[in-house]
Write a structure and sequence with these properties.
By secondary structure, the chain is an all-alpha fold. It has a domain at 21-76: 434 Repressor (Amino-terminal Domain) (Orthogonal Bundle). The chain has four helices and no strands. Helix 2 crosses helix 3 (46-54) and helix 2 packs across helix 4. The longest helix has 11 residues, at 61-71.
Length: 88
């Protein structure tokens, strides 16, 4: 977690995860939602979603789970893909 007092989740609530800002926006648009509609469905402020999509704020598991429910996708769909392991 960051020490930023304006963080999405309070310290200790859940661990911070790396979200993929481009995927967040694509998923929201694919769901046909405006920022306001997404915020209402996810139970968070629309400006928070905008900041997540711009990459100026990071989200914890709780927030990503709420967005995944709002967008009707899996939480992993909002995260960067796992790096491929080199085959020896």
């Amino acid at each position: 977690m960051t020490d930023d007092p304006g963080q999405v989740n309070p310290p200790g609530r859940d661990r911070e995860l790396t979200q993929d800002k481009a995927r967040l926006k694509r998923r929201r648009l694919a769901a046909g939602l405006t920022l306001r509609e997404a915020g209402e469905r996810a139970g968070c402020d629309f400006s928070t979603i905008g900041k997540l999509e711009k990459g100026t704020r990071s989200a914890g598991a709780h927030t990503l789970a709420a967005l995944a429910r709002a967008y009707e996708c899996k939480i992993t769909d909002l995260m960067p893909p796992e790096p491929k392991q080199a085959v020896a």
